[in-house]
Amino acid sequence: MNTIGKILTLTTFGESHGPAMGGVLDGMPAGVDIDLDELQCFVDRRRTGQTTGSSSRSEQDRVEVLSGIWQGKTLGTPIGFLVRNTDARSDDYEEIARCFRPNHADYTWQAKYVVRDPRGGGRASARETVARVVAGGIAIQALERLGITVQATVCRCGGTEPGDSAAVLERVMADGDTLGGIIACAVHGVPAGLGEPLFGKLHAQLAAAMMSIPSVHGFEYGDGFDMADRRGSEVLDLFEKREDGTIGTVTNHSGGIQGGISNGQEITMRIAFKPVPTLMRPVPSIDSEGNPVTLQPRGRHDVCVLQRALPIVEAMAALVILDNYLIKKTNVL
Predict the structure, then answer these.
(1) Beta strands 239-241 and 3-4: pairing type?
(2) What is the rounded (10 degree) CA torsion for 226, 155, 273, 322?
């Protein structure tokens, strides 16, 4: 389960403290203009050290395209790429090789695989998402050529509005604690007809993509859970014929998706991130033998991931939308 997509597929590889992270993006049509400098700028948005409370791990995240793009255009062949790891400190993780950190994947990966790479969380680390951002950045440029744009914003941080988050983060950092929050994402310009009925519904694919991001614990699209407290008459998206002759809806409670298929309206969704589980203070736990231990704060970790997660959310949304655009091209002559 290291691959996402049907026609446009991404397979990622690498561990947090291995030589590199990387991926193979296959199914991208030939002849798409790709600006590698623009791609690097997109990947840079995920880097550490740019916001309060981000990890001090200083990775440059330089994208190395190995195949599939020549003279700024896609070739229609697999796009292989690497992002090398240059600032790993594996000694920080000697303790967790024999202990389980609460709310991390240490215990569950051990239960599934019997062996695991404890350095920085191995493949369970959010370091893996750099490969998604590279591939998603390529997909975003392809979508822009089609008039489709993706934008994510922080709408809640630790239960407060974004404008109040700086002061809250300072207090939380002083306590050795962490914060979660909510990211909103909107996709503009999506044509009607993307998505598959029943088990391939567009919102289900988007939910699966978002829920695969480390620390994500919730997803909703359109009015989401608020709809559960409303009357049907209050959330009907009535149709209208517009001046340009196209059909649209007066409102967008459905978040741009009806019956699992895009209806031409803006696609809206909200993604909930849990607080980072690594605290910079002693935490009680157990070792692999079940003996009680106290985990001491070590390593370099985010206090809040929201700002760094914005390009990850945009990347995953772009991969799903472009994949479904390509699928729709195969449905009709």
Answers:
(1) unpaired
(2) 90
What span, in angstroms and rounded, lies between the C-alpha atoms of 189 and 238?
A: 19
Distances (CA, A) of 66 to 70, 83, 218, 281: 10, 11, 35, 42
Ordered strands of the 20-26 beta sheet? 3-4, 9-13, 20-26, 79-84, 63-65
Is residue 300 classed exposed, middle or buried when 0-12, 13-18 and 19+ CB atoms within 10 A define those classes?
Answer: middle
- In this prediction, residue 164 carries a pLDDT of 78
Amino acid 302: pLDDT: 87
Joined tokens for residue 85: 């790891």
Cα 84 to Cα 19, 23, 65, 142, 245, distances in angstroms: 6, 12, 12, 25, 51
How much is the average pLDDT of 195-219? Answer: 97
Backbone dihedral angles phi then psi of residue 149, each to the nearest 5 degrees:
-125, 155
* Residue 75, token pair as written in the block: 């070739």
Round to whole Å and give the CA distance between 307 and 48.
10
Rounded Cα gap, residues 215 and 225, in angstroms: 20
Which tokens belong to 265? 């309206």
Q: Distance from first CA to last CA of the chain, Å, rounded?
A: 32
The torsion of the CA quartet 322, 146, 82, 216, rounded to 10 degrees, works out to -50
What value does the mean pLDDT take over residues 67-78? 98
What is the total residue count of the chain? 333
Give the highest mean pLDDT range of 53-62, 103-112, 161-170, 299-308. Answer: 103-112
Which residues does 29 contact at the CB level (< 8 Å), separation at least 6?
74, 76, 142, 326
Query: Does residue 60 have a pLDDT over 90?
Result: no
Is the entire prediction scored with pTM above 0.85?
A: yes
Q: What's the rounded Cα separation, in Å, for the pair 27 and 16?
A: 27
Q: Per residue in 75-86, pLDDT tens?
A: 999 999 999 998
